[in-house]
Design goal:
By secondary structure, the chain is of the alpha/beta class. Helix content is 36%, strand content 19%. It has a single domain, classed as Dehydroquinase, class II (Rossmann fold), CATH 3.40.50. It contains five helices and five strands; from the N terminus they run βααβαβαββα. Helix 4 links the parallel strand 3 and strand 4. The radius of gyration is 14 Å and the shape is globular. It starts with a strand and ends with a helix. Bound molecules: 3-dehydroshikimate (DHK). The site of 3-dehydroshikimate has 10 residues, from loops.
Length: 148
């Protein structure tokens, strides 16, 4: 069997409150539920995932920097930092790893300040608007791309 593909899954600020946070926008699943679903995808695809959620930009950046030494790719929902953080974008570029950006909601149908992403321009692809399925679809696309 080939070596497993290793992916860092990053959840940005406020995603620890999924399940109770604006369920009409973000759905009723918790971040642990989402991670469990992703784990099932990974185990059927010879992949290993490491999960990280933080409300702190610096902590997210530290973890992304560290991924350079072990990961094959990054799946990230940068949450509110999507629209504000050049530093997060720079950290993703510096890893030299393929990045897939995901959002639970369709950010393009929401407030105009959510229409711009600092991450999209350095991502392999973006999936938004499918709730928790955005993560599953994003992981599948990342793993397919890594296997090519
Ligand atoms: C999550 C957030 O927390 C928002 O700040 C983004 C994103 C959208 C999502 O849909 O997953 O604007």
């Amino acid at each position: 069997m080939a070596e497993p593909l290793r992916v860092l899954v990053v959840h940005g600020p406020n995603l620890n409150t999924l399940g109770t946070r604006e369920p009409d926008v973000y759905g009723s699943l918790t971040v642990d539920d989402i991670n469990e679903e992703l784990g099932k995808v990974a185990s059927g695809a010879n992949a290993e995932l490491e999960f990280f959620q933080s409300n702190h930009e610096g902590a997210l950046i530290d973890r992304i920097q560290e991924a350079r030494s072990w990961a094959d790719g990054v799946l990230i929902n940068p949450a509110g930092l999507t629209h504000t953080s050049i530093a997060l974008r720079d950290a993703l570029v510096a890893t030299e790893l393929p990045v897939v950006e995901v959002h639970l909601s369709n950010v393009h149908t929401r407030e105009t300040f959510r229409h711009h992403s600092y991450v999209s321009g350095v991502a392999l692809g973006v999936i938004a608007g499918f709730g928790a399925s955005s993560y599953r679809l994003g992981l599948q696309a990342l793993l397919e791309s890594l296997s090519e």
